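Risk mitigation, structural track. In case the binding assays with zinc ion fail to produce interpretable data, a predicted complex structure has been prepared as a fallback.
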Amino acid sequence: MTETKDKESAPPWDASRVNLTSRELGPGVFAVMPDDVLAKDHVGTTAGFVIGERGVLVVESMLNGDLASQLIGLVREATAKPIRFLVNTSYHGDHAYGNYLFPDSTVVIQHPATQRYMTDSFEEDRRFMIGLMGKGKGIERVQARTADIAVPEMLSVDLGGRVVEVRHFGFAQTPGDLVVWAPDAKVLWVGNMIQAPSPALPWLLEGRHKETIATLTRVREFLPEDATIIPGHGRPMRPADIEFPLLYLRELDRTVRKAIGEGRSIEEALDIAAMPHYCSYSLFDWAHKLVNVPAAYREAWHESQGDV
Ligand SMILES: [Zn+2]
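Fallback model:
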């Protein structure tokens, strides 16, 4: 994944202090969010579930066994129907490590790139996640469980009386980003491609910011204006709220290009691309300065060399 978040820095949220709550957004369509979601601009992972006549589809499995159990408990409060499908929006541990706690009969759905990464790199990823989130957060006990169905582009899942769509709109934060669309309730789960509404910024952990711009634009165009978006780590938002990360990413692209055009180094680019008007985000120093500017600089530099 990345070395940009070093082991000494504080975790973005404390996995042992998350209380998950559910909110019904439409009949049988639930968003699951940490109970501090309205108080902070970045919280633990969000999730959700959709109940059909024949069973339930769950979005995300969370970071560890405790959080996966909380999520399953919220499903059980709402229905006794079987959890037939589980979708991971990416391979990030806080969205996929809890897969192992779901029943054997639950069909796990991932993008092929997520399936490949989890199959090939799980132990390396676990070490990274323990470094990021801390020891003793239940990550040590997680068991890898990968997709039963890999979805490269689009899958319609019939839950009985309602259909849910699993879609890949392109690279947004990882090569295997999936979104889940409940058309009748107009709810879209997007995972980490949008961390949270403004002032939260994207995290370009794997670079490729121009592809992120293109993918977010496609998601924006796909959605009706009155749709509800559940971002990966924040409160529900509207499609118009996608303009904020798009503005940020376009400005980031312009400023790193300007720095490269002037022959500046990556350190000097940090001054030119300081973008202090975005600094109200609580994770600004890490996300903007340590992750996004270097990632965008490297990409734009390679492009300026004709590598891309
Ligand atoms: Zn996440």
